[in-house]
Every structure is written in C-alpha cells, then in structure tokens.
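The protein record now logged underneath.
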Amino acid sequence: MNWKTLQWVLLLACAGQIHSLALRFSVLEEQEAGLKIGTLSTNYSAPYRLLNERYIRVDEITGDLFTKDRLDRETLCPSHQDGECTFLNTAVVSPHLDVVPMVIVVNDINDNAPVFERNEIPLRIPEDTSIGTTFLLDDQAQDKDTANNGLIHYHLEGSNGFFGIRQEDYGLELIVQKELDRETQDNYFLVLVAVDRGSMPLSATANLSVTVTDVDDNCPEFDDDSPIKAIVPGLGIKGTAVAQLKATDKDLGQNAQITFSFSRQISDRAKTLFYMDRHTGLISLAVDVHTDSPEEHMLKVFANGPLCPPAQAQVTVYIQPMVSSEPTIKIRFVTEHKNQVIMLQENEPPTVLALLELEDTSSDKGTLSLETDSMPFSLKQQAGSYLLSTSKALDFELCGEYDVTVVISDPHGARLHGREVIKVVVQDLNDNAPKFEQTRYETDIKENNKPGEFLLKVQATDADSHQFGKVEYRITNGSPFRIQEETGVILVTEPLDREQQGTYILTVLAQDGGDPSQEAFAIVFVNVLDMNDNPPAFPTPHFYFFVSESLPHLSQVGKVTVSDADDGDNGRIVDLRILNDKAPFVIDMSQGMLRSTGEVDREKQDRYELLVVAVDGGSPVLSTTVKMTVFVEDINDNQPQVLLPSSNLSCLTISPATQAGSMITKIYAIDEDSGMNSDITYQIIASEPALQSPFQIDQHSGNITLVQHLRGEDYGMHHLFIVVRDGGKPDPLQTTIWVNLLVNETLEKCHVNAVPEYSPQTLPTSMPLSVRGSRCESNSWLIFLCGLGLMVMSVFILLVSVVVFLKHKKTRRKMEKKDVWESKNICELKPLN
C-alpha cells in the first residue's frame, strides 16, 4: 500500500471523530509564514507526518506545527463572516502510525476596513421637514471581519448641525436637527464615516448629497421698480400698453406661478378702459380711448400665488385729452434703427441719433425740448430742425434701454401740446472682464480622498450680456484637480497623499465668451490634511545586537530607531516597547536605546528573540512590530568540570602484562563556555612516585596510556596529579584531579583512602607532554648525566656523518679525473685508416 492510498484510508477511518476527538490549535490570521502554532509532541511520540500540508507543516522529529503561508481568514472562510473559521487536517504519529485528527482555528484580526457599495449617496428632503424627522439610508458599509472587528458605527462630517445620524437594529437613519430653507441653502454635501470597533479601528467614507426640495412657503412680491404712474394719450388705441407690473416668488416651478388681477374696488370706468393680462401683469387699453378732458384712474392690482394672500400694488394712470390740430414730430433717423428704435453700441462718443422736424398746423409755431430726466441726451435746434444726440458715451451695464421724451410746447412754453417718446437701445460690447468674488481661495481636504470628491466652488461674474457675459472656467495647473467649465466646481480627480505633497496652489482662469475674450484669475490654496495612514517604520525588519554575558545592569545594548511619515500626533511615536514578558531588556524611549535590566548568562540562554512594537499617537492608532535578536557572547566564566573519574579517591587496577601503548583509562571533562573558552587540555604536572610514572596523557583527548613495559619496580600504587585547563584568554580557568592506578598481578578492586598532597614548592609545575626515550633515575644528578650522554652521542653522530660525506666527495673527484685521462689516451693510440 503506497502513502497516497494510506492517506485516504486514514481519512476515512477518522472522519467521524474529527470534531469529538480532534486536537485544536489556533492561530491569528495574517501572521508571517513559519509561525509555530503548537506541537504534537505533548501527547504523541515521533515520527510525525501530515496528510495535507497545504496550510501547515510539521517537523517530523519534534512534532512542532508551523504555518506554511500567511493565512487570511476571509479567504479561507468567505461564508463564515460571523462564525468560527476552521480547517481540518490529520496527523500520523508514532512508529505505530496512530491517526490524530486536528482542527485549526484561524482567529480574526482587524485587517479589513468597512466598504461602501456606493461612493455617492443622493437623498432628497423637503424643506418643510420638521426637526426630528428621520430618513432611512439603504447604503450601509460592510466589513469582512468578525466580532468587534466587523461591528460598524457611523458619524457625519460637514453637517454644521443640520443633520445627525442614528444607527438602529433595522438600519441607518439620517435625522433632521435644524430647520431647512431651500431658498437659503438647497444642497448639503456631507461625509458619512463608517468606523469599525477593532482595537485599532479602520474606517471608510461615502459622500452623502442632500438636496432640499422646494415647498410653497413663499408668497409673491411686487418688484420695487414696478411702475407707479402711467400716461395714456387722449387718442388711445385698443391694445396699447399702459404699464407692465413685475412680481416674483422665491419658490420654484408650480409653487412660483403668479397670476395678476384688478381689485374689485376699482371704478366701473376703469374696468371698462383697462385690461389686465393675468399671466404677464401687462395693463393695456381694453377699448379705443377718445376724451377731450384729462382723466386719472387709481388701479389696485393683486399678485396672487397658491395658498398665499395677494400682494398689492397701486398704479396711477393719467389719460390726456385730445388736442385738435396739435403739432407733430417727424423723425429722420441718422444712426442704425429698427422698428422706430435707435440701436446704438455702448462706449460710442457723443453721437447724433436723429433729425427731428416739427410739423405744426397751427398759426403759432411750437418748440421742441427734452424732459428734465432725459439725460444723457441733448436736443439742439439747427436750421429749423432739431438734432437729437447723446451727451456722453452710453454704458450698457448702467442702462440698456432709454425712453427719450421729446416735449412739444408753444413758443412761450405756456401750453403743452404733446410728447413723443423715442426708444434708444444700447447694444452691449465685450468691455467687461470676468470678476471673481474673491481672488484668493483657501480650503482643506483630508488625504486619501475618494476620486471625484467635491473641493470647493469658485464664482466669477461678468457685467456684459448674453455671450459676452457667459463665463467659463479652467485650471491652468490643475493636476490632480479638474474644474467644471460652467459651474466653477473644483473636484479632486485622484487620492491625495500629504506625505508626497502637503499644499497645492491652483490658478483658476475665468474667461468670457467675447472674441477676443477677456479673462480673470484667482488663486486657490489647497491644504492636504494629514490622516494617520502611515504606520511607524523601522529602518530594518530585523535588528541584530551582540552583548557579552554578565554585562552590568542598564548597560547599552544598541540603538533602536523608528520614524513615522505622518504629521503631528499621527507621526509621533508614543510607545516603543518589547512585547516579550520575561526578556531582561527594556527600551529607553527618550534615547531610543535598548538596555539590559537583568542577568544575561550565555550558559542559560545564548540568544533572545524579541518582538518590539512601535505605536503612533494618531487616530486610528497604527503600530508596527519588528524582530530583534540579541546574541549573548561568551566570556570565560566557567572552569572545566571533570566527570570521569568521579572523585580523587577513584582507583583502577592494571595488570603488569599490559602492552606498552595501551590506553589505561580516560579523563572526561566538560566546560559550559563556548569557543576557545571551552577548549580543554589535559596535563600531568606531578606524580607519585615522583618522576617514575610509566604513564602519559594526551593533552587533547584526555586518554592515559602506558608508554613502556611495566617492570618490577613499577608494581604498586601510582598517583597522577592532572590539571584540566580551558583555552580562555587572557587567563584560562583550570580544575585538578588525582588519577590513582594500581599495578598488581591480581585484578582485585583497589581502594584509596587518601591521596597525596600536591606541594608546588617541592614538585615541578609541569611535565613534558612527549614520551621520553629511556627511563632515568629519580635523582637530579643521574638526569643530568643522561641528558649529557645524549648530547655527546648526537655531536659524535654529526661529526661521523660530515667526515663520511667529505671522503666520498674526494673519492668521486679522483674517479672523474681518471676517466678523463683514459679517454684521452685511447684517442691518441687509435690507428689511422
């Protein structure tokens, strides 16, 4: 049966017991790969294997379980937003292939911000909505996290107290908190903010656009410039306009419709003479008027609106009597005219408009003059006629139409014969540039805004008319902004990042429709407000420090630097600490220095794996975690420990027949230090009997060997005083041990009741580590003679070698000369052919 088949068999065998007998392990999502989540070694023995290593792996020897990749709870369990996210696995453990079902629980962290389906939420509210009225908002944010991480609460920004937000079980409600008036403000641009309830909250925003709809809450009002007096000539024709009344209603559409009517209190004569157009407010003659005597009529006019009391205005109409054989005026137009109306462009210098001739049927010639309010026009007599001229340049923006009244009177001015009204229309020129309400605008916007977000509206007006007064806008240096050409609304086209640029200066151009056009400029300062969108940043994802063990309390270990690209409190590091509970280190925030706070002993722990978190002071709070490894370097603070022999009274019996070169015993010692500090050497520094020991020790292995055959004088007890040293610098540490060896025919167990006392004053401090070629006697004189004999023998051998070499060299030279001589003689005796 192969392993794949075994997997399926084991899965089927344990499928029914996974939830009742399974081991449970938990892990936070979004942790780095390789995180240990538990171990199987607590309950089961090696080896360990997993049937499925898609998400986790197991160490086959230790049974420790580790994540293989970064786990995302929302990806693993997309349909368990509010429940527990788990996945199953099965381990095969121990040599007997025991099956262990497992359940791994992936716990949620707040790694998902709320999300609105729509960035723009429109809402229409009538202006007469009472305070406290609520409107249900269907657009609610969604959060993929669970528990508090997925719970959302809302608040509004930019409402200026007009609106509030309330969250109920059945949905989200907008509350009207102040009275609304469409005529004062018809649109509100609010920001709906959704914030989750995680320990480090995340948020999202949507633009809530509230349009205040019109209700009929305003009544008609007559304009201040509505005519009060009107004059009708004595010979009036039916349909002749008498007066034009104007009234306005601030409402919109049907709510702003106005109808005009006469009061019932006007006279019957007035009802017969005048007609009121109920839609336009124009009063005209209802019949032809022929009267020889002047008449005056008081007309009370009503402007009516839906559900409103009528507005009143009073018009006084004077009807002049007919005058027989009155003089008349003949007009000969000099400038452009149309339908008896003079057309004159503005800004023209004083210009002759018309030539007026008086046609008088009476015996007395009359005269022509202008009414006193006919400025800026003049009438001058010339050769029996009259020249009508402008007295100064006309300005369309001051007045677009003039009614020039020419009065006909007798030569003495005693009797008025009549009037003639000449209409002058001033034609507009593009002589006015657009003008901004203010030339400098300044506004704020939070960074990370949504594309297309409203920034502000600029407004420019042009006093000219029609196309000349139509203003269009554009931004000369707009990126990342754009402006609506007709409205002046500036929008942000992309998210802004304060860390990249904190201030933008826009130049807005307003241009009219003239040819050539005129233009004006305004400057817009945009301040990008900081949001806490940058967590603290360490210069490296992993700090490494090296310290010597036994360093003093509060010693400096290393510098820990951290920065935050945000501004103000968002960029201020308010907490920098070590997460490990029992680590003997602390971070001094004032200096950013890692310091020691307790004992550091390499023999207890040679390194410390620390997690350091930096937290900023923003809202929401952001933090960053970094790894830190502190390696403890060894110092020579432990002397060697002899494990074998176990004490100075240990004893070993050796047979006299033991072969030379045989290993007799071994000294085994350890040193808890590391490196050179734990490099152990062994040395015999004394023995008893003194200088008669046939044993030696290997300085590295500690093996004690017999260096020569044992003799009769070697029988008995041998005590070896051995020093065990480490390689520490500059001062090594050492331990001593007595090795007791009994040379005896019978291999009975030997006993040592006491060991010799080592006296450095009487015994040599060290022994040669090499094996000596021959044994010498114990007294110093014999040792000297032995050494001297060896030296003499060495000198003798050297001299003999030199003599033999010189003699051999001399003999070789003689042989070479003899060979040369013989060769020469042979050549001389050779016969000639």
